[in-house]
Amino acid sequence: MLSSLTRLQRYYLYYTGVFALFVLLLALLERNGMPPRWVGYAFLVFTVTMYATIGVFSRTTDVSEYYVAGRRIPAFFNGMATGADWMSAASFMGLAGTLYLQGFQGLAYVIGWTGGFVLVALLLAPYLRRFGQYTIPDFLCARYGGNTIRLIAVFAAILASFVYVVAQIYGVGVITSRFVSLQFEVGVFVGLAGILVCSFLGGMRAVTWTQVAQYLILIVAYITPVAILSYNVTGVPVPQMVYGQVLEQVTKLEHQLFDAPSELEVRELYRERADLYAQKIMQLPHSLTQERERLSIQINELKSSDVQMREIVALERQRRELPQDPEQARERWEKEMFLAVDRSKPPIHHAEPFPGSSVEERDAQRINFLALIFCLTIGTAALPHVLMRYYTTPTVAQARQSVFWSLLFITILYVTAPAYAVFAKFEVLSNLAGIPIAKLPGWVAAWTKVGLVSIEDINGDGILQFAELALNPDVIVLATPEIAGMPYVVSGLVAAGALAAALSTADGLLLTITSALSHDVYYRVFRPQSSTQFRLVIAKSLLLVVAVFAATVAAQKPGTILSMVAWAFSIAGSAFFPALVLGIFWVRATRAGAIAGMLVGLLLTLYYILRLEFGGYSWLGFDGGRLDPWFHLQSTSAGVFGIAAGFATNIAVSLLTRPSPQAAAFLERIRRPGNQVEGP
Amino acid sequence: MSGISPYWRKTRWLTAWLLVVWVILTFGVSWFARELNEFSFFGFPFGFYFAAQGILLCYLGIIVHYSRRMQALDTEYETEE
């Protein structure tokens, strides 16, 4: 059987075998008393060493190898690499958690992030491959002509990719600090080293082969814990097949629990708290002084009586931690108020689509669900770091097949994520809700310490109500090994998988940014006469600069970075998708049309996001606070307007301007049959 | 236009109708998820099952079909040109 595989497939089979042996060895060592921290170190060192080895062996000094891996990546492996390139720390850790919190509504991410690959297959990949240059700006420039469009494309590519890469490096910092207890900043720079060993010397070629290796680790790490949990709960280790029954039980439990008197009481208490905060915010700044006085009186009273010092110290700390000024008080209390409002709402039934108490609310949910799918699909089909991968296959036919492999490898993770969410919910509803707080399982305490789980006995009955528990989305995947009572080696495996997901995506993004700068800006615009050797020197140094810069930004722990990633899809979708698709399918699309469409789409998307999230900008002439959402759409779906406006502008301006003379010849070349390809 | 080759005409048709299927699956079926949840499928409510797994399998089907048909079109027309 081994002989029927290609040489590469055999290599990766051996590699997987070695990795499995390594995990087994660690499991044995752990049983014989190796401390968990060492298990974490072993995983970190072992996996990064393997990636580095692949990276060093794939080093290259050839331009085509550096940018497009010499166009020699077979469809199967390109699919695997695209899978790793595509699935980031957010897919690996966040998706299951989002599904846990939002139930059916979270499936918009599953549908959107996979549906986009159909568009890639039908509309983009084969044509990009037949064109056969290096970057997406290359394609737009060849189709429409002129360097203006190249520079706009470079700007949009960097805008969409940079936030994304910072989020990945941030993810690496979180993982290393949690599992091997490195300091966060140190973790970020360890991650930086991990990223650079894969991409610095070998460019796309090295990134591709490490991504394949990273895919294998991340998928094994993702499926193992939930398979074991599924076996414990249902007796079948295939969670994707059997979680339907568990979902049925979850629904039953939800009906029993959600309207229990104690749950209603807790939600009412949260509503009262929200009202209290609302009142305090209304009466600012008076309420802040009042609060301070109240605490001072209490402290003085306590001091005159003979209570323990500990209580006085606690109250004094409370007084010290009061907001400094009304501005800060408003910000902090608003946050508290929204938290309380969230918890006072009746919980969502997991399997129910578009939940809401009235028809209008349900319709708003439905529209947001479909709009989010729309943005994520188009964004997926327009993210440059994914599209670039389809330049690397040997033939056009292989580019088409490789989209199939990509989607298959991605689907394996995406059909597992909802299972994670359902099993976690089952665990919470059947083993946590209604249990005395003193008797909660150990993993709850462990993750409360890290701040990812929080419990508050608001009604003081000593029992945990469902509404009193708050989980951070990331905890679902990370804590599943402990929920199922597995040894620490499984937790280490999950951490290694999350690390692989973050590193592989960061590599792909970094390469996109670097090639946009070195190939499109430096070589194509400024120095077309520079030698190939010098171009590579520029590319490698830029890679280093961008990577260090991204890591420095990530080390600042920018709080909003994770929500900004969702915007990358809207940005990429509205900038690239109309120009690419019209460019391929409509001969009349002109340079002016494409430029106008890209600018209008991009600016409208940015405007909607910024106005909705941050309110007015007096220096730009926008005042009057935050924008009211158009059609109830959240800022993550900003691309709906940007993409529509981009198409409309592109078409309108194209019809008004004269057809480009070179368009017909260009399209004739990329639309002809067979596998002959363009190329340098 | 006179310059449209039969290969490109067929490619366009194939692309267009697969896109229609894709739109119906993605936006049409999802629109009715509440109603579809009335049916049960292997223990799943069908609306939930379709969004979580069924639609992904359909997507794979679309891509496989496209890839096969295009391969056939390529071999059919490559020699003629």
From TrEMBL, chain A:
GO BP field: carboxylic acid transport; sodium ion transport
Q: Name one GO cellular component term.
A: plasma membrane
The entry assigns this protein to a family as follows: Belongs to the sodium:solute symporter (SSF) (TC 2.A.21) family.
Indicate how the chain sits in the lipid bilayer. Multi-pass membrane protein
- Cellular localization per UniProt: Membrane
The UniProt transmembrane annotation reads 12-29, 41-58, 79-101, 107-128, 149-170, 182-203, 215-233, 367-391, 403-423, 488-513, 534-555, 561-585, 592-610, 630-653
| CDD domains on file | SLC5sbd_u4
Q: Does the keyword Magnesium apply?
A: no
Q: Listed GO molecular functions?
A: symporter activity
Specify the protein name. Cation acetate symporter
Q: What is the source species?
A: Azonexus hydrophilus
The superkingdom of the source organism is: Bacteria
Q: Which UniProt keywords apply?
A: Cell membrane, Ion transport, Membrane, Sodium, Sodium transport, Symport, Transmembrane, Transmembrane helix, Transport
UniProtKB/TrEMBL annotation, chain B:
The membrane-spanning stretches of this chain are 12-33, 39-62
The reply to whether Transmembrane helix figures as a keyword in the UniProt entry is yes
Q: Matching InterPro entries, A to Z?
A: Na_symporter_ssu
Coiled-coil parts of chain? none
Looking at the record, the residues that make up the Sodium symporter small subunit domain are 6-78
Tagged with keyword Signal = no
Cite the entry's keywords alphabetically: Membrane, Transmembrane, Transmembrane helix
Q: Which NCBIfam families match?
A: Na_symport_sm
* Official protein name in the record: Sodium symporter small subunit domain-containing protein
